[in-house]
TrEMBL record:
Alphabetized PANTHER family for the sequence: MACROCIN O-METHYLTRANSFERASE
Coiled coil: none
Keyword Metal-binding applies: no
Gene Ontology molecular function: any one: methyltransferase activity
InterPro entries xrefs: SAM-dependent_MTases_sf (IPR029063), TylF_MeTrfase (IPR008884)
BP GO terms, sorted: methylation
Organism of this sequence: Nocardia amikacinitolerans
Keyword list, A-Z: Methyltransferase, Transferase
Name recorded for this polypeptide: O-methyltransferase
Length: 234
């Protein structure tokens, strides 16, 4: 299958620099490829797709390794909801508004298979329209309530070995072993800590001094891990 990553990356860096960059794309590619190599079953999901830059990147990475799971993208397409008490007002209500047409056009432009698009507030789409099994999810909801809702919905559906990547997880100025919330989107880390009960569940990763991502790796049950190791040793 034709590898469209190079052309797509250069295009996105020119046209969508606010939400995608080389570092983010490299980390997402690495984590998604890890899921594919491990044979983790399930769909690929994105919460907060905006104009579809990362959505298209997910599909391009999957195509490059010959994997064909469905990609589901969720967005209000009306911009962000109003900030709540755990959020900052750095990002305004209505910011990041886009249209479904922009997402579809981008995929068509690069010959990528169109994702399953779910338009509406997360509370109206995610509970009823989330795939039964999830292998990988990219969470870019920016708000506490958005992240909390999506995370709670995802966890029961995660396949063993699944990976969640959180955008704007931590303050890039803080050391990874003592990470604090990203001041522009403090609700993201707060939601993760409220769900997991500990900051240790999410690993802080970054390839840039201005942002960080958080990565959660869903544990493979010991019996599954042992069976896989035994099989590999044969």
């Amino acid at each position: 299958m034709h590898d469209r990553r190079g052309a797509l990356q250069e295009y996105l860096l020119r046209t969508q620099p606010r939400t995608v960059d080389r570092g983010r794309m490299a980390i997402v590619e690495r984590e998604l490829a890890r899921v594919v190599r491990a044979g983790v079953p399930g769909a690929v999901v994105e919460f907060g797709c905006y104009r579809g830059g990362m959505t298209a990147w997910l599909r391009a990475v999957l195509d490059s390794v010959g994997a064909d799971p469905p990609v589901h993208a969720y967005d209000s397409f009306r911009g962000l909801p109003a900030p709540g008490r755990h959020d900052s007002d750095y990002l305004a209500e209505g910011e990041f508004a886009a249209s479904i047409g922009e997402v579809v056009t981008l995929h068509e432009q690069f010959g990528l298979r169109r994702p399953h698009l779910h338009a509406g507030w997360f509370a109206h789409t995610v509970p009823e329209q989330l795939p039964a099994r999830i292998a990988f999810a990219y969470l870019d909801g920016d708000r506490y309530e958005s992240t909390l809702l999506c995370l709670r919905a995802c966890l029961p559906r995660l396949a063993p070995g699944a990976i969640l990547v959180f955008d704007d997880y931590a303050d890039p100025a803080s050391p990874p072993d003592r990470a604090v919330a990203q001041p522009k989107a403090p609700g993201v880390m707060k939601a993760c800590q409220d769900v997991f009960g500990t900051p240790l569940a999410v690993t802080v990763v970054s390839a840039d001094p201005t942002w960080t991502l958080g990565v959660y790796r869903h544990a493979i049950p010991p019996t599954v891990s042992a069976a896989a190791s035994s099989e590999a040793a044969r």
